């Protein structure tokens, strides 16, 4: 092979590597994250909607991203006709079907029939020019423009009393839902965790990284008794409940992130009654 051909192939290879590096270096979208509901907020300031238990998705006008900035791989028909205006929502497989949604999203190219089981529940259109009360009509208009049954606008309502909110939460959970979301009507779009968007759930939840396994005793002899986990703040504690028998035999690996449920914090800042919920999909990290 001549030297010129070798240099040409080398140059093309370098360009390909550069493209891959650029594609993998996509920044995470600047999305909002919900803070816990405290119970002393003025509900007249907020809109309330159902919290869908799925995978957060962000359409940047050209491609669908996870909340961490990873490019998702929906079939062409799934995003056909989507506008250049950004919007965001939850890729949802139905009540109690989080694992199914995560499985589809994490595959490089899931079969069409699995994508047909997903819906994109749109709940915002990230623009700094309008408060949320006006953005509701904006994202609802985008969904109507798309006109596909798998792209749906999340309904927004208003509630006056905390007792009404509690009743709605109970009804939502009884039917298998995860909880509710409160979004302040006059808030402009802003990224990060703040008091403009609140999650209303029967239990608090958070994420931690698995740093070790503790051997089980009694009926759990020979399997995992508890997970040692570490919070992003560096606090370590055990999760001994919530694991199924199968998960105790094949526990989340060290380094994986998990979601856990708890009820308040101790004086040392550790979660009370921590319980394992599930492994967080790598697409979200």
Notable traits:
disordered N terminus; 25% helix; 5-stranded mixed β-sheet; alpha+beta
Q: Structural class, judged by helices and strands?
A: alpha+beta
What Rg is obtained from the alpha carbons, in whole angstroms?
22 Å
Order of strands across the main sheet = 4-3-5-6-7
Give the distance, in angstroms, between the N- and C-terminal Cα atoms: 45 Å
Low-confidence stretches: 1-25
Kindly estimate the percentage of residues that lie in beta strands according to DSSP: 25-35%
In total, the number of strands is 14
Helix content: 25-40%
> How many separate helices?
7
Anisotropy-based shape: globular
Order of helices and strands: HEEEEHEHHEHEHEEEEEHEE
Overview of the molecule:
There is one protein chain. The radius of gyration is 22 Å and the shape is globular. The strands form three sheets. It has a five-stranded mixed beta sheet with strand order 4-3-5-6-7. Strands 12-11-10-13-14 form a five-stranded antiparallel beta sheet. It has seven helices and 14 strands. By secondary structure, it is of the alpha+beta class.
Write the layout of secondary structure elements.
Layout: H1 3-24, E1 32-36, E2 46-51, E3 55-59, E4 64-65, H2 76-79, E5 87-92, H3 98-106, H4 112-115, E6 119-124, H5 132-146, E7 151-153, H6 162-174, E8 179-184, E9 192-200, E10 204-215, E11 224-230, E12 236-239, H7 245-249, E13 257-262, E14 275-279
Parallel strand pairs: 1-9, 6-7
Antiparallel strand pairs: 2-8, 3-4, 3-5, 5-6, 8-9, 10-11, 10-13, 11-12, 13-14
Brief write-up:
By secondary structure, this protein is of the alpha+beta class. It has helices at about 5-25, 75-80, 100-105, 110-115, 130-145, 160-175, 245-250; strands at about 30-35, 45-50, 55-60, 65, 85-90, 120-125, 150-155, 180-185, 190-200, 205-215, 225-230, 235-240, 255-260, 275-280.
């Amino acid at each position: 092979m001549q030297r010129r051909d070798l240099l040409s192939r080398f140059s093309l290879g370098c360009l390909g590597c550069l493209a891959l590096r650029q594609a993998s270096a996509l920044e995470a979208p600047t999305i909002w994250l919900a803070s816990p509901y405290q119970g002393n907020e003025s509900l007249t300031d907020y809109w309330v909607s159902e919290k869908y238990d799925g995978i957060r998705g962000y359409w940047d006008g050209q491609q669908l991203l996870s909340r961490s900035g990873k490019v998702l791989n929906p079939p062409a028909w799934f995003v056909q006709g989507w506008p250049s205006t950004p919007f965001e929502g939850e890729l949802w497989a139905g009540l109690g079907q989080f694992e199914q949604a995560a499985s589809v999203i994490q595959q490089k190219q899931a079969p069409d029939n699995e994508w047909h089981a997903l819906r994109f529940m749109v709940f915002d259109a990230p623009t700094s020019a309008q408060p949320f009360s006006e953005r509701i009509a904006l994202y609802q208009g985008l969904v109507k423009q798309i006109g596909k049954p798998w792209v749906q606008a999340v309904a927004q309502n208003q509630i006056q009393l905390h007792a009404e909110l509690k009743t709605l939460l109970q009804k939502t959970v009884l039917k298998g839902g995860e909880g509710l979301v409160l979004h302040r009507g006059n808030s402009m779009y802003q990224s990060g965790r703040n008091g403009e968007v609140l999650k209303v759930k029967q239990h608090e939840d958070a994420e931690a990284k698995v740093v070790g396994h503790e051997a089980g005793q009694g009926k759990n002899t020979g399997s995992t008794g508890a997970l040692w986990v570490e919070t992003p703040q560096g606090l370590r504690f055990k999760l001994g409940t919530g694991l199924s028998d199968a998960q105790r035999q094949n526990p989340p690996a060290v380094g994986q992130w998990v979601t856990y449920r708890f009820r308040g914090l101790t004086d040392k800042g550790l979660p009370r009654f921590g319980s394992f919920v599930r492994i967080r999909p790598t697409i979200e990290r």
